[in-house]
Amino acid sequence: MKGFKIKALRIKGRPELRSQPAHRPLPLPALLLLAALCPPALSLRHGPSKIAVVGGGIGGSAAAYFLRQKFGRSVQLHVLEKAALGGRLDTLDVEGASYEAGGSVIHPLNLHMKHFVQELGLLANTLQGSPSGVYNGEEFVFEESSWSFINRPKLLWHYGLNPLRMSMWVEDILDKFMRIYRYQMHDYAFSSNERLLHALGGDDFTRLLNQSIEEAMQKAGFSQKFINQVVCPAMRVNYGQGVTIPGFVGAVSLAWLQSGLWSVKGGNKLVCSGLIYSSKAEVIPGTVVSIEPKTRHQRGGDPVKLYEVTYNTSSGLTGDTYDIVVIAAPLGRKMANITFRNFDPPIPEFPNPFQQTVTTLVHGRLNTSFFGYQDPQAFHLGAIFTTDNPKLFINSLTLESPVGDTGTGGELPLPSAVWKVFSNEELSKEQLSLLFSSYDSVKVKPWLAYPQYSAPEKFPPIVLHEQLYYLNGLERAASAMEMSAIAARNAALLAFHRWHGHSASVDQEDLHERLKTEL
Ligand SMILES: Cc1cc2nc3c(=O)[nH]c(=O)nc-3n(C[C@H](O)[C@H](O)[C@H](O)COP(=O)(O)OP(=O)(O)OC[C@H]3O[C@@H](n4cnc5c(N)ncnc54)[C@H](O)[C@@H]3O)c2cc1C
Ligand SMILES: *[C@@H]1O[C@H](CO)[C@@H](O)[C@H](O)[C@H]1NC(C)=O
Ligand SMILES: *[C@@H]1O[C@H](CO)[C@@H](O)[C@H](O)[C@H]1NC(C)=O
Ligand SMILES: *[C@@H]1O[C@H](CO)[C@@H](O)[C@H](O)[C@H]1NC(C)=O
Ligand SMILES: *[C@@H]1O[C@H](CO)[C@@H](O)[C@H](O)[C@H]1NC(C)=O
């Protein structure tokens, strides 16, 4: 996702929450007292011995990291991955340099991602963004100038107070969303996606999930022209869909218009391999095909409940048993395609349609006359966004910097550079030669990119069975690296509390008010 920045509306950074509190150990007498008070069956429950995480994308690798943090050194962690670590975070090489092909842009207030990068000793590239324009299939309906100081009057002229009101509207949603960090810092978890979202934004968030971004913004008094020319292009570049997507994912998408966006130097997927290394999890290459509950009877002890996970490796079908399983890949026949055997009651199938987005990286010269500029010298845009017009075969076209670089610094695009095209379908040769007057290298990557959104949004459960958890349901609120990280931390906390029977840390109401007075 590459937002076009409305530079004039830069939002001031706010004090950041510290991501990790230092846990102060209890003094010994307090510990002894606690031990004496707790019924032994509760306090002496052993930790799990083996946990499986299905999927090594950002969700799965963050889950491994947080599971290690909660369950300690002795648990054995396996990450089962059918392809490459990183999942939807991946780079493509063009002319000897690497470019993000999947998830690319991180918001400055994505605190888990920020914490990972610091913890792993990685570096961040701040994205500078170049002047952008909105193309409607015939002409540019809005063009940013190369001189950012004239953008404010220009925006005001075009859209009145809509841009300013939008940034306040998004800010308000973001403020509520940020509550998740405080809840998680205090170890609170939620057993459903609905509860998690309700604990952040109450009925306001429920309403945002129930109606389209268009409806939500119309009700909030935004003009139709602004919705068509600014909001819609942002939805198209970020989610390949129009303003029918729900208000919540729509608002997330609009947050990408703010400044301070960044990405990981060397490629975002480095976070995944880094987290897995730091969690000391073992990566097992294989495709999970089925999961089945089992009960093992031990001599003299209570029966132990386990999950048998069967996976297909290069040497055939094999499997292992685990106390806890965390699924960190989108479920569905066309997605992870995992069969849940012999669950009582059975685990239902959740409808989970995904949107295809094709990333095309082109090293070439833009055909500026396609966009109505007969003189290529006059063309100054580094990002082209689009309105909803069925004639258009692209969603966006943006000038890219390699992952090792710190951005173009807002300079004018070079005559020949690397452009990233997002489209719903693969581009034909004819379409490519319309967009580019010449090109010498094309790399294509089709993705099942993010959910196909529609309001009202319904969520699959987080708890599929006693100790079987599912992260990617939260993607139905909004798909983003940070959302997967939040879901991962929630699942690790939830698994821990449920294993040890700590019900007081799960699904608490009014956390926002309670934590206010606690500090
Ligand atoms: C083109 C594009 C642009 C995007 N832009 C942004 C952006 O700018 N910013 C942002 O925050 N987000 C962006 N996103 C979304 C973001 O990339 C995803 O939300 C995020 O990467 C999802 O991570 P995940 O770990 O939950 O899922 P995935 O990355 O899909 O990981 C799931 C993993 O599970 C593996 N797997 C699946 N099934 C099985 C199985 N049966 N057995 C074993 N392994 C299995 C897969 O191989 C995969 O590695 C973008 C996505 C795309 C495609
Ligand atoms: C959202 O829609 C669901 C049904 O689709 C309804 O039960 C719920 O009351 C609605 N919530 C709000 C806040 O509109
Ligand atoms: C396992 O993988 C092999 C080779 O990739 C494939 O031929 C086979 O059908 C797979 N088996 C199952 C049960 O998915
Ligand atoms: C899902 O897996 C089953 C067997 O495990 C297989 O028969 C089926 O073809 C797979 N479906 C898809 C869409 O890959
Ligand atoms: C460039 O765009 C124009 C206008 O759409 C088109 O006629 C022409 O064929 C395109 N290609 C080249 C190489 O100029």
Determine the CATH topology of the domain at 50-86 and 268-353 and 455-518.
FAD/NAD(P)-binding domain
Spatial gap, N to C terminus: 36 Å
Mean pLDDT: 90
Per CATH, the class of the domain at 50-86 and 268-353 and 455-518 reads: Alpha Beta
Radius of gyration: 24 Å
Any idea what the CATH superfamily of the domain at 50-86 and 268-353 and 455-518 is called? FAD/NAD(P)-binding domain
Q: What structural class do you assign from the helix and strand content?
A: alpha/beta
Helix content: 25-40%
Q: State the CATH architecture of the domain at 50-86 and 268-353 and 455-518.
A: 3-Layer(bba) Sandwich
List low-confidence stretches: 1-24, 38-43, 408-412
Tally the helices: what do you get? Answer: 15
Fraction of residues in β-strands: 15-25%
Largest sheet features: 7 strands, mixed
* Biggest sheet, spatial arrangement of strands: 7-6-16-17-18-15-19
EC number: 1.8.3.5
GO molecular function: prenylcysteine oxidase activity
Organism: Geospiza fortis
Domain Prenylcysteine lyase: 142-508
Question: What do these coordinates show?
Answer:
This protein has 519 residues and is of the alpha/beta class. The protein has a domain at 50-86 and 268-353 and 455-518: 3-Layer(bba) Sandwich (FAD/NAD(P)-binding domain), CATH 3.50.50.60. 31% of the residues lie in helices and 23% in strands. It contains 15 helices and 21 strands. The chain has helices at 28-37, 40-43, 58-71, 111-119, 151-159, 162-177, 179-185, 193-210, 213-219, 224-239, 247-255, 270-278, 429-435, 481-500, 511-518, and strands at residues 50-54, 76-81, 91-94, 97-100, 124-126, 132-135, 140-143, 262-264, 282-285, 287-296, 304-313, 316-322, 324-327, 339-340, 354-366, 383-386, 396-399, 417-423, 436-451, 463-465, 468-470. The strands form five sheets. The chain has a seven-stranded mixed β-sheet. The protein has a six-stranded mixed β-sheet with strand order 9-2-1-13-21-20, covered by helices on one side. Strands 12-11-10-14 form a four-stranded mixed β-sheet, with no helix packed on it. A hairpin with a 4-residue loop joins strand 6 and strand 7 (140-143). The longest helix is centred in the last third of the chain and has 20 residues, at 481-500. The two termini are 36 Å apart. Mean pLDDT is 90; it is low at 1-24, 38-43 and 408-412. One 2-acetamido-2-deoxy-beta-D-glucopyranose binds next to loops. Residues 1-43 form the signal peptide. Belongs to the prenylcysteine oxidase family. InterPro entries: FAD/NAD-bd_sf, Prenylcys_lyase, Prenylcysteine_Oxase1. One of its GO terms (cellular component) is lysosome. Keywords: FAD, Flavoprotein, Glycoprotein, Lysosome, Oxidoreductase, Signal.
